Amino acid sequence: MDQNSESGDGVRTGVATNIVDAVVAAILLALGITVVVASWKLGATWTTDGPGSGYFPFGIGVLICISGLGTLCMSLFGKNKNTEIFVDGEQLTRVMQVFIPALVYVGAIEIFGIYVASTVYITLFMILLGKFSPIKAVIAGLGVNIVFFSMFEIWFKVPLFKGSIDLLSFLGY
């Protein structure tokens, strides 16, 4: 199937683009309001010795609110709103096949460190999504991380995070 996959009756199903735009705009508006309120508490006015500590963040928060509100109104009430499907099931599945392993990888860095987690991530990604042979994937995963380890730990003497379970402690770095 191509990117414009269709359901059994020939019509793509999913959430309309303008609805996704409205949700993102509402989140942006909430973020802007948060910035405005927090900066007002810090002091968003002009004091005797210049701007208060919340003066500039307050202005940025107001700009975020204006852009969020404008986008929200255009996406819900604009005459040129985009009602095409934002993403269908097949496209969402492809995105999740990359996004979920990336989340697991970020969590694995905290436990096993960047080198071990990256080796496993590259190897599994190549095998499962890239359909590479396991031998090639292991060689690539190890090779990339041996180069990075050598570059950062040995040559630059910049230690990267080894994780709470330091599986590479036997190397002395």
What is the element layout, followed by pairings?
Blueprint: E1 15-16, H1 17-43, E2 46-47, E3 50-51, H2 55-77, E4 85-87, H3 89-112, H4 114-128, H5 134-155
Antiparallel strand pairs: 1-4, 2-3
Low-pLDDT stretches are 1-5
Distance between the termini: 49 Å
- The H-and-E topology, N to C, reads as EHEEHEHHH
Shape: flat
Biggest β-sheet: count, sense, barrel? 2 strands, antiparallel
Extended strand count: 4
- Which secondary-structure class do the elements indicate? mainly alpha
Tell me the fraction of residues in β-strands, as a range. 5-15%
Fraction in helix: 55-70%
Structure commentary:
This protein has 173 residues and is mostly helical. It is 64% helix and 5% strand. The strands form 2 sheets. The protein has a two-stranded antiparallel ribbon. The protein has a two-stranded antiparallel ribbon with strand order 2-3. The protein is built from 5 helices and 4 strands, in the order βαββαβααα. The chain is flat, with a radius of gyration of 24 Å.
Produce a short descriptive summary.
The protein is mainly alpha-helical and about 170 residues long. It has 5 helices and 4 strands; from the N terminus they run E-H-E-E-H-E-H-H-H.
Question: Which characteristics define this entry?
Answer:
173 residues; 5 helices; flat
